Amino acid sequence: xxxVPELLxxxxxxxxxxxxxxxxxxxxxxxxxxxxxxxxxxxxxLTELELIDRERRMVERRIKAAKFSAVKSLDSFEFQAIPxxxxxxxxxxxxxxxxxxKDNVIALGPSGTxxxxxxxxxxxxxxxxxxxxxxxxxxxxxxxxMEAHDDKRLVRMQRQxxxxxxxxxxxxxxxxxxxxxxxxxxxxxxxxxxxxxTLITSNLPFEEWTQTFGSERLTGAxxxxxxxxxxxLEMNGESYRLNQSRSRLKTTKQHPS
Length: 257
Fold this sequence. Notes:
The chain is of the alpha/beta class. It is built from twelve helices and five strands. Strands 2-3-4-1-5 form a five-stranded parallel β-sheet.
């Protein structure tokens, strides 16, 4: 007969969506009995475990929904390799208060200086703080916007992106945009102005963005909106990816297998 209440408890916990308590209640009961812990503290332990596990699962879902190109934290970024980058400014951004203020971030610098890594790290911090994030390259985003426009799904896509607290647009400037693509991207960024935060990485300084958008008027209007409330991260310097490759090559030559 002892199986009946256990089966009922398992059923109830499953219905209430409390899987961690279902896994832990027996183990924690034995630990609490051995320690002489009362029923209130026992329940407090169980509910705390459930809350911790629930938050972990929520973070995992937000990371999956963000569609990051890779999951990277700021802890693994080599700040000393990019002296022009203000480490304290980046760590302050990781607190995500700028997202609550609906400010923007623009990371500028040549290829290989870690702009995408910084963007991914800040995106991960936002997910951990409970904020919806979306990561996409500029080329992919424009392609998706143009497809949505052709299929008459543009308004729906714009609404979906408007709900995202942080939109990360990576690699702006690598590919020149068509007139329609540039206009659609401008429209999206305009819609997010003072409604949501946008983080952009670009290998081009601002004065060369016209090469990407093809119009000085459009570029000026875009920068006017992006830079009204903005944190600019200067990431000038040698490619640390290239330096890492050189170091590995040097090590291989010194210690051949």
